[in-house]
Amino acid sequence: METSTLKKRKLRIATTSLTGCFGCHMSILDIDEKIIDLVELVEFSRSPLTDFKHAVDCDIGIIEGAVSNDENVEVLREFRRQCKTLIAIGACAVNGGIPAMRNRFSLSECLNESYLDGMGLENQGIPNDPELPRLLDNVHPVQDVVKIDYMLPGCPPSAEMIWQLLSDLIAGREPVFTQEQIRYD
Ligand code: SF4
To answer: I want to staple 140 with a disulfide (CB 3.0 to 4.6 A). Which of 56, 61, 83, 144 is the partner?
Structure first.
């Protein structure tokens, strides 16, 4: 392959939401008109923006959301296998965030409250269709399951920080954030 062809190759990015609310994905879209710059530089593999079911041979993988069920574990491991660089964005991915609030209770307590004993419920039973992902006993941040190369906290991280991280990685630069950018108080 010629050098010029190599230079022109677009980086391939995959994104997924595990146990998240898609707010971090909305923050990616909030880069506004820079999205035009982005699509000039990258192509998308698996992502809510595409219909691909799997991440395949990617340069960058972006993970939103915590790990709360066996399907999340499977998807996350696939991203680790298929993506050279893996980024966790948002509090849920980085430290479990809101989904991890259930860790204060046992799984059976959560299920009973949600489906059997909670106010206004008509005891329809706990869903047990074999097609449903199996819930883990606890919710985990993504780095409990696979190695993560970069973490961007925030709920959600700002579009500006996401753009900076992506544009640095695409340009082959090591991302550096100022103290001001990573303050959350
Ligand atoms: Fe949603 Fe916040 Fe979690 Fe992102 S970090 S998935 S915005 S709750």
So the answer is: 144
Distance CA 8, CA 181 (A): 32
Ramachandran class of 119: left when φ > 0, alpha when ψ lies in -120 to 50, beta otherwise = beta
* pLDDT of 157 strictly over 50: yes
Which residues have C-beta atoms less than 6 Å from ligand 1? 20-21, 23-24, 64-65, 90-92, 97-98, 155-156
Indicate the fold that domain 10-100+139-170 takes in CATH. Answer: Rossmann fold (3.40.50)
The torsion of the CA quartet 19, 23, 28, 32, rounded to 10 degrees, works out to 160
Ligand 1 centroid to Cα of residue 153, in Å, is 10
Domain boundaries, the chain: 10-100+139-170
